[in-house]
């Protein structure tokens, strides 16, 4: 179902929105936003949440306000609540994490990027970024989101905004965007480890596997070292030029990951598609070690390198995993979840206003993505499964 074509909101396919859904939304809002100290904050949190769910098209503050009230002052109140009101993003996403944990998510933590195009240079964190998926350099904000997998749903439970050195080292920019002194420059691999640490502190999931695409990250070795140090298993897309050695040949010269794995024979494995379907994939794989590495790294840890072989013109991603004792079908199924994460981000951008934040402040951006995440999670876990009129053959946004 294309919500823009149908003219309906995410929560009301066909225009129906039952009373019991309103009661569930009230309970959900009270739970997710109970850390907000003031009654008026909780009131506007619920209003913003409901507006995100009901407003079709672009989620500007004015359009959100119009969707829930005819009072012209509502737009200013919503803008004040998101950009200036003092409430804690961390506490809200912690409640969101606990809510999702109650739905027994799979033991996979998927971390992915949201590329949010912007005009001008005033929005917090905006910078020039080469987007590998589109092959273009964009003027954008770059957010990293953590997603938990509940059945076929992938829902966001945390975010980091990437701040380039041009932002963190400019005192005037920091003042204008109200960036806290506690926010230094962090490369993408460090931001990823930060998200892993935050989710580790909020959950009791020592066996969860980290899934992340770092295929354009030159310093991916620091991420791999950090995950190994935390005893956290992973499936990571790595650059094709990553230097590796065959696991049984410690004295051999390093090769690029692409060169080594493409020299291997193919094996077949069943990997998932959407909606519970599966397909047979042809994979090339090799056990490898990483020569050298970041300072202090213990050398010699074996990993499995694998990639799919197929008719696509562009080469498939190269994946490196610590799950060396798992079958190819198992690790290939985890890697396949990355597609669902990108689809979830695309749905949040198109239907839930992820890219529509109009403010310029650091805290405002975090407040907005917390509210968008809450709206998307509510829709994905509670509304979509309860709407039988959706054709199961149709792609879910």
UniProtKB/TrEMBL annotation:
It comes from the Bacteria. Pfam families: DDE_5. Residues 33-253 form the Transposase IS701-like DDE domain. PANTHER family: TRANSPOSASE (PTHR33627). This is SRSO17 transposase. It comes from Actinacidiphila yanglinensis.
């Amino acid at each position: 179902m294309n919500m823009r074509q149908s003219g309906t909101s995410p929560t009301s396919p066909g225009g129906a929105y039952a009373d019991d859904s309103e009661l569930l939304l009230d309970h959900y809002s009270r739970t997710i936003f109970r850390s907000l100290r003031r009654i008026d904050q909780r009131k506007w949190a619920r209003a913003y949440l409901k507006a995100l769910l009901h407003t079709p098209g672009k989620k500007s503050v004015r359009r959100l306000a119009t969707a829930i009230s005819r009072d012209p002052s509502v737009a200013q109140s919503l803008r004040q609540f998101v950009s200036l009101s003092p409430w804690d993003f961390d506490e809200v996403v912690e409640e969101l994490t606990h809510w999702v944990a109650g739905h027994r998510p799979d033991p996979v933590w998927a971390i992915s990027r949201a590329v949010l195009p912007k005009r001008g240079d005033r929005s917090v964190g905006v910078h020039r970024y080469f987007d590998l998926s589109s092959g273009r350099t964009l003027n954008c904000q770059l957010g990293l989101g953590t997603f938990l997998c509940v059945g076929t749903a992938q829902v966001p439970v945390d975010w980091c905004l990437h701040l380039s050195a041009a932002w963190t080292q400019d005192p005037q920019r920091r003042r204008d965007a109200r960036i806290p002194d506690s926010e230094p420059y962090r490369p993408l691999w460090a931001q990823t480890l930060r998200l892993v640490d935050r989710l580790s502190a909020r959950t009791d999931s020592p066996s969860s596997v980290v899934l992340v695409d770092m295929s354009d990250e030159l310093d991916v070795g620091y991420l791999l070292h950090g995950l190994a140090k935390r005893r956290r298993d992973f499936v990571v897309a790595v650059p094709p030029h990553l230097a590796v050695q065959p696991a049984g040949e410690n004295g051999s010269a390093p090769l690029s990951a692409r060169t080594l794995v493409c020299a291997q024979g193919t094996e077949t494995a069943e990997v998932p598609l959407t909606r519970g379907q599966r397909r047979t994939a042809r994979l090339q794989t090799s056990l490898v070690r990483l020569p050298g590495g970041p300072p202090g790294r213990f050398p010699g840890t074996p990993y499995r390198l694998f990639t799919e072989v197929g008719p696509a013109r562009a080469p498939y991603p190269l994946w490196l995993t610590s799950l060396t004792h798992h079958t190819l079908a198992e690790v290939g199924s985890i890697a396949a979840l990355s597609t669902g994460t990108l689809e979830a981000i695309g749905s949040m951008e198109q239907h839930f206003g992820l890219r529509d934040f109009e403010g310029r402040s650091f805290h405002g951006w975090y407040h907005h993505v917390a509210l968008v995440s809450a709206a998307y999670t509510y829709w994905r876990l509670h509304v979509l499964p309860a709407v039988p009129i959706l054709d199961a053959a149709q792609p879910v946004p």
